[in-house]
Amino acid sequence: TYKFTIDKREVTTTVITTEPELDRCLKDMLSTFTPKFSTAKRVVGLGIEKRFETVTTYNRGPKVCDRVAILTLCHGTTCLIIQLHLMRSPPLSLSAFLQRPELSFMGVGIKHSLEALETEYGIKCRNAVDLAQLAATVKNNDILPEAIALRQGICTTIQT
User: Fold this and answer.
1) How far is Cα 75 from Cα 32, in angstroms, rounded to an integer?
2) Lowest CB count within 10 Å: 75, 99, 138, 142, which one?
């Protein structure tokens, strides 16, 4: 777990490599949402990072493919970086979390991210909103480049 400050707010980022650790972190994230009797939708940011890997096919030899390696989930000042490529099988708790009806998942290009998660890991998401149009509308805003740079910096640090 790493903690850093952005605009005087402490952000907690946890890098997850095992299913038991993921189970605990998802449970902790759920506990930060508003009470169950609230009708407010709970919003979670979702993004993926892919990596290239070589796959040997039976009759064509080696083939280079890009696969989902990392899934990032963010809510409030909590960010979970889930290294799916290090897990033996698709985590059941993650699948259940993404299917919760009271949660909405948002991200730029989320449709493609969720298609990749379903194709490669069999993980489906119930409620998703693509922010691509919004991101394109506010692309001149100073916050967007900083957010992208931060995300790329975190992922580069973890992958190396």
Assistant:
1) 9
2) 142
